[in-house]
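Exercise: predict the fold of this chain.
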Amino acid sequence: MPDVAANPQNTAEVACALVAAGLDVQSLQDCIELISAEYVTLPDGHRWQMKTPLDAAWRLRGLASLLPSGHSSIQMAVDGLAELCREGLWSLDGASGSSPSVFATAVAVEALGAARKTAPVETTKALSFLKDYLAREGWRDDSCPLSHTAWAILALIRAEHGTGLPKRLDGPLRKGIEMLFKEVGRGPEVEEEDVLRGGRADTWRHNTSNLVLTALLAAQPEAALAPAMRLATRSALNCQDMRGHNAGAFRTGAGGIFTTYATAQGIELLLAYKRAVREVCPADAVEALLRPDGGHHTDPQSIFVPLGHVRFMANSSAMFVWAATSTLSTGALMGMLIYGGTLIPLLRKVGVVFSLYALAFGWYGYICARFPRLSNWKIATVLYGLMTALWIPLVMYFFPA
């Protein structure tokens, strides 16, 4: 796809995703030469250098996924990444004196783990750096808070627990996971940060929504069934082109463009869900993924039309309390209006009509939650029809002006 010129970093990212998805490694051998390259020539003749820690880390991950363990090219890539290390951490541009980057450090830790199949001893300080970022809630002053938190969680999970799932999450991981859960479906779809490559300014675009979902599924597989996760996953999967010119590709967001990195991360998200559903009941997982809301009336249901990113969700028990409370309050108000005798007939009539609509509004919520398979719009239409055709004429008859 023509999102960017073919380059080692993008190629490595795609190769890692395809190998993880089960594609035959032999079919990707032609990619090795491009992944190993340290620069590419753009159409305008400029040499686009790929020598930052991010490029070196992805080069290592790509080669580790395509070549047998112990291959000389992998060792050269390990050495190249190590040369860019500054006191156990990595920055975005690799220059001396640059501040360490959570993103670059997390990607480097994952790359070294992929090359050596375990967390190397030299990443100890890097892992402590990532934990500290989560523990002190470093995302509060971060330009890419969601993406960096997701990368830190992924690196910690994969480095300390490998392919197995953690039996117990420590404090920093818990903090980061709780923050991501709060932002699922609400945060930006893409976060950006500036990167210098060979003195030339570049922009790194994180596919944030997919990263957040992948990190949460890696840390807590049971999150696959959470209503907010299901809604966010449905939105992410709707970004895939199923039948058009870019069939199979993913957009960077609902209004974004089709890119190779969004597609690679879309594959990673699908694989994360595949791993997660192995940890839960398959029937429950499939049924839940097909619905944006809970399938049972005790699950949270979407009751009213969303206001931006805010959704009003409740289950049948909560909405029954809502309906009962509205019935009692409306009954008391109507009693005062009918028997109070201090209001003129017109105001009394308006008050009674308003009370009836308030009563219908309360029971509308309960019916929507109690019968989740019925359309909310149909329920609202039927109640409105009853009010218009039956209750309002009765009010007009018994309370003439």
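Check your answer against the key: The chain has two domains: 8-292, 313-398.
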